[in-house]
Design brief:
This is Glutathione reductase. Homodimer. This protein has about 450 residues and is α/β, with parallel strands linked by helices. It has 3 domains: about 5-145 and about 265-330, FAD/NAD(P)-binding domain; about 145-260, FAD/NAD(P)-binding domain; about 340-450, FAD/NAD-linked reductase, C-terminal dimerisation domain (Enolase-like, domain 1). About 30% of the residues lie in helices and about 25% in strands. The strands form 5 sheets. Strands 1, 2, 3, 4, 5, 6 and 16 form a 7-stranded mixed sheet that branches. Strands 17-18-21-20-19-22 form a 6-stranded antiparallel sheet, sandwiched between helices. The protein has a 4-stranded parallel sheet with strand order 10-9-8-14, with helices on one face. The termini are far apart. The model has no long low-confidence stretch (mean pLDDT about 95).
């Protein structure tokens, strides 16, 4: 049977674009459909714009530190329209780069929605049908709201980059990394931020000691954090234009803006997948095997739509492994073990491997941990604290987990992650000479465990 394409990719995010490009460069006839903007969540409404906002929000501390170090400098006010204009220009530039990369690789693109009709057929939103030997699903995920009265008044992380102006008072609902990151960002930009989270502590799933310090530092910097608290209902106050919020802690308060960061769901709704036999999981994710193959052999899926490890670099690796498996005849599973990651709160948190709690459930461990005021902030008279933590197997001596809460933790964990991924032992860390004076030197100078078990 002759097909229009060797590969048809649905989704123009980082994973889909990488897979399409590499397959086309290898000689495959490839097409890609994207209904929104090229670059996906990461480039357009996630990692990239968020990190630029992180940079913008940190300058208030930089100015204060500069004054403490003797610079004659005065803090000004943040101009959101100026920043937003430059942000939009940068995102347009990056989207253009993605389009050029696809065109340069010979990938045919369709700027429209696509659905799956059968195991080898795609239908575009204009009614056109295309056939392909292989179909790759890379539609990513989308923010979801919790289903309460008045939720339509709230925004999500998708819309926060496009606000006409920064609100004076903002409620962030949620306790995951997206909620915590934006609570810190908006606080740094001068917004009065309140955060509600229904759980006992933010950043569930991460090391308890590390996330506890992050929560403390967030509050020290001005975020009003309410744990064990959720929103019951919301409505618009017609007189003031603000949003009235009733919460489970009994409070009734008004905010200028409310942002829900209460989870994301895979983009599989109305894609025709179940009709053609593609198995979906409880959250709507495409169920795949170690080689990203779905229950329909000709249909594969990568990235957030599979709800495995929802990180851009992982989606890219999954895309590369898909091409290697399907087009190069080299079956390549994706290694999802020991992935370093960073949470861009203030301070940042970098982590790889097991939390102390997870490790203790598996085997006897030693815990090496130190918390201190870093030199720069201490000299400037700030009370900020950082944390360095290693979880070590008592039997093998391997470092099972590394957790850093500090400015620049994302940069540090990338390098520490190499050692942990290689199976470094605590003695390997000990043999490494410290770089002095740095915060990171504490990772190799902790000699005695603070806890065992």
């Amino acid at each position: 049977m002759a097909f229009d394409y060797d590969l048809f990719v649905i989704g123009g995010g980082s994973g889909g674009v990488r897979a399409a490009r590499v397959a086309a460069q290898g000689g495959a006839h490839v097409a890609l459909a994207e209904e929104s903007r090229y670059g996906g969540t990461c480039v357009i409404r996630g990692c990239v714009p968020k990190k630029l906002m992180v940079f913008a929000s940190e300058f208030v501390d930089t100015v204060e530190d500069a004054r403490a170090f003797g610079w004659d400098i005065s803090p000004g006010s943040f101009d959101w329209p100026t920043f937003r204009g430059k942000l939009n220009a940068e995102l347009e530039r990056l989207e253009g780069v993605y389009r050029k990369l696809l065109a340069g690789s010979g990938v045919e693109t369709f700027d429209m929605r696509a659905r799956v009709v059968d195991a080898h057929t795609i239908e575009l939103s204009d009614g056109t049908r295309k056939s392909a030997r292989h179909i790759l699903l890379a539609m990513g995920g989308w923010p979801v709201k919790p289903g309460i009265a008045g939720e339509e008044l709230a925004i999500t992380s998708n819309e926060v980059f496009h606000l006409d102006h920064l609100p004076k008072r903002m409620l962030v609902v949620g306790g995951g990394y997206i909620a915590c990151e934006f609570a810190c960002i908006l606080n740094g930009l001068g917004v009065e931020v309140t955060q509600y989270y229904r759980g006992a502590q933010v950043l569930r799933g991460f090391d308890d000691e590390a996330r506890g310090l992050v929560a403390e530092e967030m509050q020290q910097k001005g975020v009003e954090l309410h744990l064990g608290t959720n929103v019951l209902e919301m409505k618009r106050d017609e007189a003031s234009g603000s949003i009235w919020v009733k919460s489970t802690n009994g409070d009734e308060r008004e905010f200028d803006q409310v942002m829900f960061a209460t989870g994301r769901a895979p983009n599989t709704h109305d894609m025709g997948l179940q009709d053609v036999g593609v198995e979906l999981g409880r959250n709507g994710e495409v169920v795949v095997d170690a080689y990203s193959q779905s229950s329909v052999p000709s249909i594969h899926a990568i990235g957030d739509v599979t709800d495995r490890v929802n990180l851009t670099p992982v989606a890219i690796r999954e895309g590369m492994a898909f091409v290697e498996t399907v087009f190069n005849g080299n079956p390549t599973p994706v290694d999802h073990d020991l992935i370093p990651t960073a949470i861009f709160t203030q301070p940042e948190m970098g982590t790889i491997g097991l939390s102390e709690e997870e490790a203790r459930e598996q085997e006897p461990v030693e815990v090496y941990c130190t918390s201190f005021k870093p030199m720069q902030q201490a000299f400037a008279g700030r009370s900020d604290r950082v944390l360095m933590k290693l979880i070590v197997s008592r039997e093998s001596r391997k470092v099972l987990g590394c957790h850093i809460v500090a400015p620049g933790a994302g940069e540090m964990i990338q390098l520490a992650g190499i050692a942990v991924k290689m199976g470094a032992t605590k003695e390997d860390f000990d043999r490494t000479v410290a770089v002095h004076p740095t915060m990171a030197e504490e990772i190799v100078t902790m000699k005695a465990p603070v806890r065992t078990g």
